[in-house]
Design goal:
It is a single chain. The chain has 412 residues and is α+β, with helices and mostly antiparallel strands. It folds into two domains: 5-205, 2-Layer Sandwich (Cytochrome Bc1 Complex, Chain A, domain 1), CATH 3.30.830.10; 232-411, 2-Layer Sandwich (Cytochrome Bc1 Complex, Chain A, domain 1), CATH 3.30.830.10. It contains 15 helices and eleven strands. The chain has helices at residues 45-52, 62-70, 96-109, 114-132, 135-147, 161-165, 169-179, 195-205, 258-269, 275-283, 314-330, 335-352, 356-370, 376-384, 388-398; strands at 5-8, 14-19, 24-31, 75-80, 85-92, 185-191, 232-237, 242-251, 287-296, 300-309, 404-411. Helix 9 (258-269) crosses helix 15 (388-398) and helix 11 crosses helix 15. The N and C termini lie far apart (59 Å).
């Protein structure tokens, strides 16, 4: 099997080739265009463009794209985050040519038809309403708004019905011209393929388009501009179970403490062996499900503890969580617990990246964020080196009151 390879084409496009044993191949395009690149006036435009790329090109109608992928047993999709929009397809290995051709056509030649624009705007508004009906999404969305108040990171990725209502097709076309450029894009191929053949194919379809910009691609437009955290945000909804998302604004993915933070996350709230699960659910029966996670962007991140619970237990739930936070800040994690958690994290990370699409996302995100590949082995090794002192130190740097917000969704 060939080694992982990286190629930069003349127009600035970067491509990552991840050959591995498989009966299929995945191809993806990672574009540096996310919600934090937007303004209040353009809120939701990156997500809107994501939808519109599936609506057809001069040579392909929307149904032609769908049939070409699904007709060969494949699937395709896209997603938008704060810092990127990603388009990807997963096909039997002999159809890599079709996969690259179709996604390249969408990326380069998508038509922003006025009628399709109007129809898809209605679809996105329905998507926003659907999310607003889900209390678990609402509690996290409100938490992010509180942690990043006054910053575009705190706003919904899909925008709002109000921001979408003011958009016109010409805005999307202009936004694509400035953001969908070769130097802001990374192509990734993972699975069963020949690296040289794949490189030639990508160069032909994507590596010669446009001109490399003389300007350095901007990072997030609102990089580093964050106001004070809003301590608490509460909404009442017609629900049976209350929701809590307790969050802390923290450092970003480039910070060397991130691996200690990952281990901290594992100790507190990853899996049924974690401290929060054992204390909150098993010992006190305060919640059916409780867990934590850390989400890192380029320069900033969030540590989130989330639980569903009976509203009458609100105070005791919060005090129990706070007690576990104080413990991990004041006392070093015992060696046995530390080793067990690191082994869990390393094993879970390795198993999750056996999947082809996981490999695609890992390598694409790594290249976009750091300009190089941070391999599974490198990350596993970094987790294994984390010490108990580092876990305690990073806990004290993250769990600070001025960085904390509590988001509640309570029954009316």
């Amino acid at each position: 099997m060939q080694d992982i390879a990286i190629k930069t084409f003349r127009n600035g496009l970067k491509a990552v080739f991840v050959p591995c044993e498989a009966e299929s191949v995945a191809f993806g395009l990672f574009v540096s265009s996310g919600s934090r690149h937007e303004t209040a006036r353009t809120a939701g435009i990156s997500h809107f463009i994501e939808h519109m790329l599936f609506k057809g090109t001069p040579s392909r109608k929307s149904i032609d794209i769908t049939r070409a992928i699904e007709g060969r047993g494949g699937n395709f999709n896209a997603c938008t985050s704060e810092e990127a929009t990603i388009y990807y397809t997963h096909m039997p290995f002999e159809y890599l040519g079709e996969a690259v051709d179709i996604l390249s056509d969408m990326y380069l030649n998508a038509e922003i038809d006025d009628d399709e624009f109007a129809r898809e705007r209605k679809v996105i508004v329905e998507e926003i309403k659907m999310c607003a009906d889900d209390p678990e999404q609402v509690v996290v969305e409100n938490l992010q708004r509180a942690l990043f108040a006054g910053n575009q990171i705190g706003e919904p990725i899909a925008g709002t019905a109000q921001s979408l209502s003011k958009m016109v097709p010409g805005q999307l076309r202009a936004y694509m011209k400035s953001h969908y450029t070769p130097e802001r894009t990374v192509a990734v191929v993972a699975g069963r393929f020949d690296v040289n053949e794949a490189a030639s194919l990508i160069e032909k379809l994507l590596g010669r388009t446009g001109r490399k910009s003389r300007r350095k691609p901007s990072a997030a437009a609102t990089l580093g501009k964050f106001g004070s955290v809003v301590p608490e945000i509460t909404v009442a909804k017609d629900v049976q179970q209350a929701q809590l998302a307790l969050g802390f604004r923290t450092f970003g993915a480039a910070d060397g403490r991130k691996y200690a933070a990952v281990v901290l996350d594992g100790i507190l709230g990853r899996g049924m062996s974690s401290r929060l699960f054992q204390e909150v659910r098993e010992n006190r029966a305060l919640s059916y499900d409780i867990g934590s996670r850390i989400s890192l962007m380029s320069d900033v991140g969030m540590f989130i503890i989330q639980a569903g619970f009976d509203a009458s237990k609100r105070d005791v739930l919060l005090s129990t969580i706070e007690r576990e936070i104080k413990k991990v800040c004041s006392k070093k994690v015992p060696r046995e617990e530390l080793d067990r958690t690191k082994e869990f994290l390393c094993g879970n990370f390795r198993l999750s990246h056996e999947r082809l699409l996981s490999k695609l996302f890992l390598h694409g995100a790594s290249m976009m964020r750091f300009g190089r590949i941070i391999s599974v082995d490198e990350q596993v090794e970094a987790i294994r080196k984390v010490t108990a002192d580092e876990v305690r130190d990073v806990a004290n740097s993250i769990f600070r009151f001025e960085n904390r917000s509590a988001s509640w969704v309570l029954p009316k």
